[in-house]
Write a structure and sequence with these properties.
The two termini are 35 Å apart. By secondary structure, this protein is α/β, with parallel strands linked by helices. Strands 1-2-3-5-4-6-7-8-9 form a nine-stranded mixed β-sheet, sandwiched between helices. The protein has helices at residues 55-58, 106-120, 134-145, 164-178, 193-207, 210-214, 226-240, 243-254, 268-273, 292-299, 325-339, and strands at residues 2-4, 9-17, 23-34, 44-48, 74-78, 128-132, 152-156, 278-284, 305-310. Helix 2 (106-120) packs across helix 3 (134-145) and helix 4 (164-178) runs antiparallel to helix 5.
């Protein structure tokens, strides 16, 4: 079943068995398409969503005249489980509501995305899977999980497996949120405001680089002081994000490993070698948690991979549309190289 809303559509997956063995009842994927599928059903560009992102945020990565163009491509933007639009702790009924929401891996996300594309949208081949951060992690996952279906992948500011240091960073923001006495192990009756604020403040310290703060680049975003930026991040998390949703996606992020599951049995090198898609990896040299060194290691094992480091004081947020025009140029160049 497919349900249309004002801004996106819902694909009803029914009950799905997760990689963990648990069953998520009445699972749903929220998505939006742009452009038209061609006669060969192969002009598809897939954009999964990133952490604290929805399909709306993905609209900054394409447009008329850009490398990904709805006049040429059939763009499918799929919301990741846990982001509040697809099945999430905040919108799933008992017995999987709130803190009872099961761990959903990127394997589970991609398996369900594959169903949407093939069963409902009639897609046969994917020209490109690309995305920022956790969306890029899903691009790797697509390349390994369905190697015969994907022509090219371009993950940016992401990795095929969450590094130990990245895992620890996430433990920090999680602990800040859960320290709120109103958290009550996820059984809160009203949002844990102090925890959400703490989460946002810790996160802001990692999202941008040391150079960003030293050179006061936050002023280019309209903030006079660091405190102004931090308050804005607090307000965004309070207004737009459910705490259980944030933690569900965080668990998915921490479990990110394209070799996890029956196909590669935790052999990451085997999983990377299985990627047949032409691959460009774009890293930001000042990204504090998706480090270029991890991409260099990965590229050694992906058969058709090229790595293109980009230096930016914006750190991980260099990829956020509007922050660093030079990154946008580099991203579009990489996409054009793969699509052409």
């Amino acid at each position: 079943m497919n349900i249309k809303t004002n801004d996106y559509e819902i694909f009803d997956l029914g009950d799905i068995k997760l990689l963990s063995g648990k069953v998520l009842e009445s699972a749903k994927l929220a998505y939006k398409t742009y452009g038209t599928l061609n006669a060969n059903c192969d002009n598809v560009v897939l954009l999964p969503t990133f952490y604290t992102g929805t399909h709306k945020r993905n609209e900054g990565f394409f447009g008329s005249g850009r490398a990904i163009d709805p006049n040429t491509h059939f763009i499918v933007s799929i919301n990741m489980f846990g982001n509040g639009l697809s099945s999430s702790p905040s919108n799933t009924p008992s017995p999987h509501d709130g803190p009872h929401f099961p761990l959903i891996t990127l394997w589970d996300n991609v398996a369900c995305q594959h169903r949407l594309l093939t069963e409902h949208l009639g897609v046969k081949h994917i020209a490109l899977v690309t995305g920022w951060s956790m969306a890029g992690c899903q691009a790797y996952q697509w390349g390994a999980q369905f190697p015969d279906m994907v022509n090219a992948i371009l993950p940016f500011c992401s990795s095929a497996k969450t590094s130990p240091h990245n895992f620890v960073f996430l433990e920090g923001v999680k602990s800040a949120l859960c320290a709120d006495q109103n958290w009550t192990d996820g059984h809160y009756s009203s949002p844990p405001i102090k925890g959400l604020k703490a989460f946002a403040r810790v996160y802001a310290g990692w999202a941008f680089s040391q150079t960003f703060y030293r050179k006061e680049l936050y002023k280019k975003l309209g903030f006079n002081t660091i405190e102004d930026l931090l308050v804005d991040w607090e307000n965004d998390h309070i207004k737009n994000w459910d705490a259980n949703d944030l933690l569900a996606k965080l668990a998915t992020w921490q479990a990110n490993d394209i070799s996890f599951g029956p196909k590669y049995e935790n052999n990451i090198q085997k999983a990377l070698r299985s990627i047949r898609a032409r691959t460009i990896l774009i890293s930001c040299t000042q990204d504090l948690y998706f480090r270029p060194e991890d991409n260099l290691i990965e590229a050694q094992h992906i058969p058709n991979a090229e790595i293109r480091p980009y230096d930016s004081p914006w750190g991980h947020c260099a990829a956020n549309p509007g922050n660093d025009h030079g990154f946008e140029v580099e991203l579009d160049k990489g996409i054009k190289d793969l699509l052409n």
